[in-house]
Amino acid sequence: MNFLQNQFIKYLKNYKLPFFINFLFLFYFTSIFSQIKKDTIALSEITLKGSPIKNVVQNVAASVSVITTADINKSDGIIMTPVLNKIPGVTMQQGALNTNRITIRGIGARSQYGTNRIKAYFDGIPLTSGEGETTIDDIDLASIEKIEIIKGPNSTSFGSGLGGVIQLFSRETPLLESFGKSTVTFGSFGLLQQRLSAGYSDSKTNVFTSFTDLQSDGFRANSSYNRKSFNLHGKQKIGSNGSLSFLGTFTRLKAFIPSSINETDLKNNPEKAAATWAAAQGFESYDKSCLDWDTIINFRRNGPFKPVFFLIIKMLMNPGRLIFWTKK
Fold first, then answer.
1. Minimal CA–CA distance to 235: which of 268, 262, 207?
2. Whole-number average pLDDT of the chain
3. pTM of the shown model
4. Membrane-crossing residues (predicted)?
């Protein structure tokens, strides 16, 4: 019985009311106090994985939004647009499957055909090029377990990015579980997605892998899309104070580009592609591979030591040119 209930009982004793009325008052207010106590729920803490200093989201000074596995599983599993658009202050505009633009608090809105002024990472691997262009639609949703979005400048921790930082984390197999799964998704305009995924986990080893083949004819002319992606993520404990993790991704993309049309065509024939792109059958095509090795060694005095090595290889294949780009 709390302080307010005690005070109320003393009040009833001071005023000589009939016993029945006192009983009704006591029963009524006791029910109210009990209901208030039952409705009080403490929210569980959410630990940020991408922050340089490990902390819970309730204690972070910056504006941080977290997208969990449950949130990702509620989407169609094809595009990330509906997942990010649920976050206040974050907008992702999708044209074709290979053209999108992300803005955080309006930053990046002046970019017409892509995302800039926003940093993105996948398990610490930068998805932002040296020119500041960010591409996250290469990452298959099946390989993402969690997304953390930090709004506002974070140059001290993540480099120059006026809008904010989007951090993607690879999916892991639940502890002491193993599975194999195959899914097929059909949609309008010739959409077909085939996905194979498997995982294994014990007390020391955790492995997750997935392969996805996504095809679509597109709503507009010259907008067909074909992407094959493979993901392999593994962790291995080394002794009692260390661990080794590996991440490998491969993406093969060929996507035709319908480009922009004028207002008249938009109203009368929105399926039409731009005349020059339709005549040339313009497209983008590339193979992209990412490899990442992480070793974590925990020292009792100095804390964890985490050397990270990653390699990104991207081969662009457009008519008349071949470019090989490597970043280490």
1. 207
2. 81
3. 0.78
4. 17-36
